[in-house]
Amino acid sequence: MSDRAPAGQFLDAAIGLLRRVRDEEADSIAAAGTLLADTVQNGGRLFAFGAGHSSLAAQDLVYRAGGLALMNLLAVPGAVGVDVMPAPLGSALERVDGLASAVLDSSPLREGDALLIISLSGRNALPVEMAMSARALGVKVIGVTSVAYASETKSRHASGTYLKDHCDLVLDSKIAVGDAELTLDNVPAPFAPASTVVTSALLQAVMATTAATLADRGVEPPLLRSGNVDGGHDWNGRVMERYRDRIFYRH
User: Fold this and answer.
1) pLDDT in tens, 75-130
2) Could you give phi then psi for residue 216, rounded to 5 degrees?
3) How confident is the model at residue 97, as a pLDDT?
4) Based on the number of CB atoms within 10 Å of its own CB, is 39 exposed (0-12), middle (13-18) or buried (19 or more)?
5) Which InterPro entries does the UniProt record give (predicted)?
6) 231 vs 46, 185, 234, CA distance in Å?
7) Is the dihedral of CA 30, 31, 36, 38 positive or negative?
8) What is the pTM of this model?
């Protein structure tokens, strides 16, 4: 690590990853935006799922100012974030076989919908099973993961496969195994994770593509406005009423 301040080094690392995503994932981002636009136009519903800290990027898409009103959070009890106590229980739940299928069986997901599955490692049973089971239902699956994990770690699913192996499209976040960008001689562990920054930006790039694609087709994108600008709540009320059959976070 150079003499530059850690804050600047971390920001440089994050910017470098964002540039890689911009340049190397452009085609995949365009394809994902087109898939979601097709789903919206065909009457399908949109869902996002992530476990643990991967859930942060999923939550960032739901009921979001400037975001698509049709994006719903697919929540797995105990795996949404670090609100579960003790926190390691959430990590343990990601390894439980059968949990994803049970959640999907009681969810509104159906054929013709699209599901974003966010898992940095893509190695745990929960995201792998979620992708497999969703596709079996006729749901289009977009996986957001670090592809590097598949060559540097062992799968924790009985099939030996990873999230990337069960998706219609894969978006690679480029995050290195371990998700820590900095090291110091006097710090015993690497630190400063960038996965949330990069994954959220990657997904917002997909959302921007979806909105623009719908507009290019003459379809008004179902976007939400900030509730902190004049008229925002009224605007959102109209959008949610129009699409009430495809929005599940309001019920």
Assistant:
1) 887 777 777 778 777 777 777 777 888 888 989 999 999 999 999 999 989 999 99
2) -65, -25
3) 78
4) buried
5) RpiR-like_SIS (IPR035472), SIS_dom (IPR001347), SIS_dom_sf (IPR046348), SIS_GmhA/DiaA_subfam (IPR050099), UPF0309 (IPR022951)
6) 26, 53, 5
7) positive
8) 0.93
167: tokens are: 């998706």
Q: Which CATH architecture has domain 6-243?
A: 3-Layer(aba) Sandwich (3.40)
User: In 15-31, which positions are buried (b, 16+ CB within 10 angstroms) versus exposed (e)?
Assistant: eebbeebeeebeebbeb
Amino acid identity of residue 172, one-letter, is D
The radius of gyration of the chain's CA atoms, rounded to the nearest angstrom, is: 18
Asked whether residue 199 carries a pLDDT value surpassing 80, the answer given is yes
**Tokens 């439980």 label which residue?**
96
Token pair in block for residue 61 = 């898409």
Domain locations in the chain? Answer: 6-243
- Region 218-236: what's the mean pLDDT? 96
The Cα 19–Cα 53 span in angstroms is 22
In total, the chain counts a number of residues equal to 251
Mapping DSSP onto H, E and C, the string for the chain reads CCCCCHHHHHHHHHHHHHHHHHHHCHHHHHHHHHHHHHHHHCCCCEEEEECCCHHHHHHCCCCCCCCECCEEECCCCCCCCCCCCCCHHHHHHCCCCCHHHHHHHCCCCCCCCEEEEECCCCCCHHHHHHHHHHHHCCCEEEEEECCHHHHHCCCCCCCCCCHHHHCCEEEECCCCCCCCCECCCCCCCCECCCHHHHHHHHHHHHHHHHHHHHHHCCCCCCECCCCCCCCHHHHHHHHHHHCHHHCCCCC
- In angstroms, rounded to a whole number, what is the distance separating the alpha carbons of residues 210 and 251? 25
Confidence of residue 197 (pLDDT cuts 50, 70, 90): very high
